[in-house]
Amino acid sequence: MAVDAGKRTRGADAVLRALIANGVDTIFGIPGVHTLDIYDALIDRGDVQHILARHEQGAGYMADG
């Protein structure tokens, strides 16, 4: 996704671009009020896989593994 200098970019899109630029293709997490914009951006992009965790500590262990 190219960035147009005259167009506003959502923070969530910037987060995903940074993750992809650093070779991230899978993320682990729990949807919540504070991350809903990132989940919306994930749906729009579709090139990063999300794995749902039931607990934040479990998500950390999954990401570490």
Q: What do these coordinates show?
A:
This protein has 65 residues and is an alpha+beta fold. The chain has 3 helices and 2 strands, in the order H-E-H-E-H. It has helices spanning 11-21, 36-45, 56-64, and strands at residues 26-29, 49-52. Strands 1-2 form a two-stranded parallel sheet. Helix 1 (11-21) crosses helix 2 (36-45). The protein is globular. The N and C termini lie far apart (29 Å).
Strand order of the largest sheet: 1-2
Q: How does the major sheet shape up?
A: 2 strands, parallel
Distance between termini? Answer: 29 Å
* Beta content: 5-15%
Task: Provide the low-confidence segments as ranges.
Answer: none
Helical segment count: 3
Order of helices and strands: HEHEH
Number of strands: 2
What's the average pLDDT? Answer: 87
Proportion of residues in helical segments: 40-55%
- What Rg, in angstroms, do the CA atoms define? 13 Å
Task: Provide tags for this entry.
alpha+beta; two-stranded parallel ribbon; 65 residues; globular; 46% helix
Summarize the model shown.
The chain contains three helices and two strands. It has 65 residues and is of the alpha+beta class.
Layout of strands and helices, then pairs:
Layout: H1 11-21, E1 26-29, H2 36-45, E2 49-52, H3 56-64
Parallel strand pairs: 1-2
